[in-house]
Amino acid sequence: MGNTDKQVKFTLLENAFDFILSALAHISDDSSERDLKYAILHLSAGVELVLKERLKKEHWSLVFENVEKANRQSYESGEFQSVNVITCIDRLNGICGLSFRPEHKEALTHLRKKRNKLEHFSTVDSVDAMKSATGKVLSIILDFIVRNLSPKKFDVSEQKMFDEIKSQVMKLEDFAKHRMETLKGELEEKGKACHVLECPSCLEEALVLGDGNPQCLFCYYEDTPDKVAHEYLETIQGESRYLAVKEGGPYSLYYCFSCGDEALVHLVNDGVEGKTEWVCFGCGESWANDDIDFCGRCGVPYPDKHGSAMCGGCYDSLVGGD
Asked: What is the structure's pLDDT at 187?
């Protein structure tokens, strides 16, 4: 006999991620109308649970439609009417202090309306319209998760599911289109104070330097400055540290003149109007190529402000008689 007594139990967040993964499984280039119907239904359910997870973090009673009737016993048994998506967003705004852009709120409520029509009236939009709706909402909800649910604190199961969601989402053409449209304003604003380069993980020009650890706003790739610098050189510039050590080939990674980290990269094509050719993946400081020279004594690059033939360290060494 099978184990008929085994209970199926998910955390609220695991349940949310499971619905989103199910939605992604129904989306592909050759998705049928039936596939897209379930994609909308399951994505809508997953999105609502993600929003409720943030409400729950504020206080468990907020996931009740009628907070005045909230009690712990009903909450723990799951026997209560939970908050709808409109009220959920209003509470996230008014109680949790979160701010939804008008177009994001519209996209989330629009998905809910599509879900209601599909569930109750079997109304099916065009395939393109349904794919577009899912792409837009996936972009919004991934941002919400990263910014408001602290992925670094997920348990092992939640982290595994979230990583799978990110992996599957990045393959969707409609997601990529809406993601870059959504990020356009933020990337332009970031570009005023930071450097935005091509990401070695997703190859989109959305890797932000100079605002903490390097982070890609498109695919959420993030790591320490030295590791991202290595990935950039290997993936974007086609340089190999292994070959550089073994055969003496080029490897354009150096210690930063400003912060001292080994995260300064000599860029081949930096995408910043050809002006910046040296940038630190740690502090974000940058230099034009004309401002940098290579020391004639030790061979390392240095900012040449006075037409010196060697770096400051070698000059001090010579002057000191070492």
From this structure: 92
What distance in Å separates the CA atoms of residue 310 and residue 228, rounded to the nearest whole number?
A: 29
Report residue 274 as tokens. 């050809």
| pLDDT value of position 1 | 45
Q: Are 134 and 43 in contact (CB under 8 A)?
A: yes
pLDDT of the residue at 273: 52
User: Which is it for strands 205-209 and 215-216: parallel, antiparallel or unpaired?
Assistant: antiparallel
Each domain of the chain, given as residue ranges in start order, spans: 12-181, 194-287
What pLDDT is stored for residue 50 in this prediction? 96
**What's the predicted TM-score (pTM) here?**
0.72
Q: Are 141 and 47 in contact (CB under 8 A)?
A: yes
Block mean pLDDT (10 aa), the chain, length 322: 57 94 83 82 94 95 92 88 91 93 86 80 64 84 93 93 92 82 90 90 90 91 93 89 81 90 84 69 90 81 74 71 55
Do the Cβ atoms of 165 and 23 come closer than 8 Å?
no
Quote the pLDDT of residue 247. 81
Closest CA to 209 of 262, 284, 285: 284
Euclidean distance between CA atoms 112 and 117, whole angstroms:
9
The CA–CA distances, whole Å, from 275 to 173, 270, 291 equal: 32, 8, 11
Q: Within the chain, where are the H helices?
A: 12-25, 33-58, 72-77, 85-94, 102-121, 127-148, 156-169, 173-193, 225-235, 241-247, 312-319
Query: How many whole angstroms separate alpha carbon 272 and alpha carbon 163?
Result: 31
Please enumerate, as own/partner, the contacts of 60-66 that have beta carbons within 8 Å and a separation of 24 or more: 62/91, 62/95
For residue 65, give every residue at least 6 positions away whose Cβ sits within 8 Å of its Cβ, in sequence order, or none: 80, 81, 82, 83, 84, 87
As given in the structure block, the two tokens for residue 1 are 């006999």
